[in-house]
Amino acid sequence: MRITECRAEDIALLDRHLPSGGATSFHTRRFARHAAGTSTYLIAWSADGSGPGRPVGNAELRWTGCTAPEVRAAVPDCPEINGLLVAEPLRGTGIGTALIHHAEHLTAARSLDRIGLGVDDDGNPRAANLYTRLGYRPTVRYLDRWSCTDLSGTEHQQADPCVFLVRDLGV
């Protein structure tokens, strides 16, 4: 496995192997922020021996931090790992951990001393256990608000209760 920053030509592969659905894919929106310099969109690749491989995971490192006002007030200037995803059959194989470590390395390289991420309050215990094992500590509860546009063009607003976890990088 290798981790790279997303390139424009990677979007079609991401949509094929890690589909997000909707009229505009999450990958397209994340890449737009990456291209604008407000985030770094990371892709984990699995080499299959016949070429560059296929995307098996992704995460966006948002340099501007979490958009939730509760989180911004509690931990200002804290980059956020957002949208961490590993292909279903490969979960538990270290891909998520590698993406998190890569994001931590990029954050420390900017001399930033902490990094955070959100997790569903009770909907994702495997992820919560991973984050705790990696040293992330609960900091603030918040409502994660986001929207998606379905294939018919209708926008849907979503809100999930979450906990924002922070790890001190010791920089």
Protein described:
The chain has five helices and seven strands. The protein is globular. The longest helix is centred in the middle third of the chain and has 15 residues, at 95-109. The two termini are 27 Å apart. The protein has one domain (2-168): Aminopeptidase, CATH 3.40.630.30. It has helices at 11-17, 26-36, 69-74, 95-109, 125-133, and strands spanning 2-5, 39-46, 54-62, 80-86, 114-120, 137-149, 155-168. It has 171 residues and is of the alpha+beta class. The protein has a seven-stranded mixed β-sheet, with helices on both faces.
Shape: globular
As a percent range, the share of helical residues equals 25-40%
What is the structural class?
alpha+beta
Q: How many beta-strand segments? A: 7
User: Order of helices and strands, N to C?
Assistant: EHHEEHEHEHEE
- The CATH class name reads Alpha Beta
Low-pLDDT segments: none
Rounded to an integer, what's the Rg over CA atoms? 16 Å
In the CATH hierarchy, the architecture is: 3-Layer(aba) Sandwich
Total DSSP helices: 5
